[in-house]
Amino acid sequence: MCRFIETIRAENGVIQQLERHQNRISQTLKDHGMTVFPALENLFFNMKVHAQGRIRIRIEYGTDGYVCMEQFPYMRKKIQKIRILHFIPPEYRYKYADRAWINSLLLRSDADEILITHAGRITDTSIANITFFDGSTWWTPDTPLLKGTERARMLGMGIIQEAGLSVQDLASFSGFRLINAMLPWEDDVTHEMSVIDPISLCL
Question: Whole-prediction pTM value?
Answer without folding.
Answer: 0.94
